[in-house]
Amino acid sequence: MQIVFLGTGTSTGVPHICCNCEVCTSSDERDKRLRSSLLIRDKGKTILIDCGPDFRQQMLTHQICSLDSILLTHEHYDHVGGLDDVRAFQTMDIFAEDRVAETLLKTMHYSFAANKYPGVPDFKMHIIQEYEPFGVGQTRCVPIRLMHAHLPVLGFRIGNMAYLTDLKKLPNEALPLLQDLDILILGTLRFKPHFSHLMVDEALEIVHLLKPKQTFFTHIGHDMGKHADVEKQLPSHVALAHDGLTIEIY
Ligand SMILES: [Zn+2]
Ligand SMILES: [Zn+2]
Ligand SMILES: [Zn+2]
Predict the structure, then answer these.
(1) Which ligand is nearest to the CA of 167?
(2) Distance (Å) from CA 5 to ligand 2 centroid
(3) What is the pLDDT of residues 225-240, one digit of tens each?
C-alpha cells in the first residue's frame, strides 16, 4: 500500500490569505500546506480520503487520472469543497455516513437530481456506519468514530494505517481498533489548545496510548510554527507530514 499526503493544512490552508507571519512567509516548501487529503493506492485501487477545495490542484500536481472511491470524514467545507471537480472523473463511489450524505444532497442537489444537467459530477453514494467495515475492491476500510468537539466524525483504519483527523477526543470504543498500527496519522492543529482540534500535547497522549510505530501530524495550522523548527521538538517516532510526502506501507 502506498499513501500520499495531498494536503496537510487546516481549513484555511497555509499560508493564510494576508498573513505575514514567519510560517506564512517561509520559503520552505514544507510550510505550504493545501487543505488536508490523503491518497491511498492499494491492490489496484486508488482511494481518496476527503475532497477539499484544493482537490483540483492536488489532482493536477500529482497527475492523478484515475480515482476509484472517495471516503469522507465529515461535511466541513475543507473536507468536501472540491467534490464539484470530481466531474472530471467517471461515476465516483462516495462513502460517507448518513448525516454527511444528507448535507451533500442539499449542497450539491444538482448532482443528485433525476434529470441532471450534462457534465455535473456523477456520485454513487454508499452509507457507512461507525465500526462497520466496508470494502473498496479488496481493500478493507474500518470507520472509526471520533469526536470533533460536539460533532461526531469518522476516521478510517486501512490495513496497518489509520487516518484520524478533525478530532478532539477519541472514544474508548475506538481504542481496540487502533492497535498494532504501523502508521498513525493524526489531525493536530498547533501547540495551543483549540476547542475542536487536537493540540500537540493531546496528540502525543494518543500516541502514547496507541503506540503506533510511526505517527504523522496533519491538518496543521500556521500557528504550529515552521516545519523545520517543530520537527526538532517532536519525539523521533512522531513527525509533521508535509504536502507530497509519500510512504510505502508493507
Ligand atoms: Zn478540517
Ligand atoms: Zn501566518
Ligand atoms: Zn472539521
Answers:
(1) 3
(2) 21
(3) 999 999 999 999 999 9
